[in-house]
Amino acid sequence: MKSARILAIGAHADDVEIGMGGSISKWTDEGATVIICDLTEAELSSNGTVQQRKKEAKKAAAILGVKERISLSIPDRGLYLQESFIKEVTAVIRTYQPQIVFAPYHLDRHPDHGNCSRLVEEAFFNAGIRHYQTEGALDAFKPERLFYYMINGFHQPDFVIDITAYMEKKIAGLHAYESQFTIGEHGVTTPLTDGYIEAVSARERLFGKEVGVRYAEGFKTKKPLLLRNLIGEST
């Protein structure tokens, strides 16, 4: 993964950390460049404020070794297949030119996560179309792969990443979102405040057991993974 450029896209700050925080920490530790893009400012969240969330997102990114994090400020709960939104995401892909793009897996209890997935799929495809215009007249660019991480769901993964050595970093990144995973003085109970981090840890433990390691994160893909040889690494 050395020298790779990875773009991880989420609907809200904390989505990426929930689904693939351990993998991000592993890859940045190995020398990869990881950019996180939050499509919204999560302004409709039950707890916390936009400014709090931004500070927490910055802290979480630093913990995981992410040097750059951006927000597109698309309206929370407004992630629809709107052409202007597709163009915004396409412009991000063309600007950062990642080898690999990650998006939420579409089967999730939160509609924004599924809508985010579909927006990214459209942008991923359009980014490589030479005559598709985005603001700034950016050149066409086609990333190599699009993979999907899980947020609230538990699905049979197509592949997993061993994060045993990075599970503590993942948990630390989640704890950076104090406004979301704990109930503050004026906070309310949500699925995130009811043992959510423990549930995520349990999921990664189960994924790990499937492949004989302690912790792993699971990912989905629509295309088969190519193995160079029977015991080689996937590309």
Automatic annotation (TrEMBL):
Superkingdom per UniProt: Bacteria
InterPro entries recorded: Bacillithiol_biosynth_BshB1 (IPR023842), GlcNAc_PI_deacetylase-related (IPR003737), LmbE-like_dom_sf (IPR024078)
Catalytically driven reaction(s): (S)-malyl N-acetyl-alpha-D-glucosaminide + H2O = (S)-malyl alpha-D-glucosaminide + acetate
Cofactor names: Zn(2+)
Name of a matching Pfam family: PIG-L
NCBIfam families, per database record: thiol_BshB1
Name of this chain's protein: Bacillithiol biosynthesis deacetylase BshB1
Organism this protein belongs to: Bacillus chungangensis
